[in-house]
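__Protein archive entry__

___
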Amino acid sequence: MLINAAIRLQFSPLIPGGGQAVSDGSMIEVRSPATVANMVCGFDVLGFAVEEPYDTMQLQLKDEAGITIIHEDHFGLSIDPLHNVAGVALIAMLEEIGRQDIGLELRIRKQIKPGSGVGSSAASAAGAVVAANELLQLSFSKEDLVRFAMHGEKLASGVKHADNIAPCIYGGVTLIRSIFPLDIVTLPAPDLYVTIVHPQIEVRTSDARSILKQHLLLRDAIRQWGNIAGLVAGLLKNDHALIGRSLEDVIIEPVRSILIPGFDEVKKRSKNAGALGGGISGSGPSIFMLSSDEKTAQAVGAEMRAIYSAIGLDHHTYVTRICSTGIRTNWTKPNSVN
């Protein structure tokens, strides 16, 4: 008698492959991490991945052409591929290889709440194309995968930005030197702890972009350039003090922080607790802080919880690390046993 069993392999970092699509009923599962974009002063150009939270996605072939999306969560996101960030990213990839006849079934279990400011849309779009690249045995580079996944970001925010997508796929810290043409620079990931608080409100990325100023004072631009340069230098030198001094934003944060209750108090008390610094994660409402050790990171988390408990606003906190690998993949293969 034949019994169907499954061999579940350990999670391993993404390794691009090449060849024919796997058609033996195999399923590829990916763990797609949350990301912190901007890193305070690096609007749309800097970002890093974190170990937690993360989304889990499963992709397999199906007989009928087209993309089927199944959400195994309660966020009520569209399952229409044309209105789903993972769907439009997959469509862009299939159009590139000229294989719209392929049938794909994508199951998504989101832990990263949409509108949280920690790369929810990026995790879905990036996870989908990484899974397809491996399932179909394609040989797209990580830069190619970022390019496809950016279609999802455009759907979500109206802009093709990569500061969440890139660290999600590459892992660690990434610098987007240019979008057109796409030029991604990987930076050393510092040995730091990350504390994140997510007040349970939603800030839509498109709304957070719409309130930004379109014209800057030269003195503000000069100060911002100095902070970005200092932050990159701090990362390269693993200089925690320089990283902390450079976590200052004089352009975006003063405008967006008004959308986040308790922001100024969180920042003040986190730094008093020993955090190197931090600020708005992406477009918010999540706030992140970097610390040199876990004890400080936990103390920062306690301050964050105290502030939002006093306000009476529901919230989630995470104490985590920078994720050096980015998206991880796991094969589930059928096995016949006599």
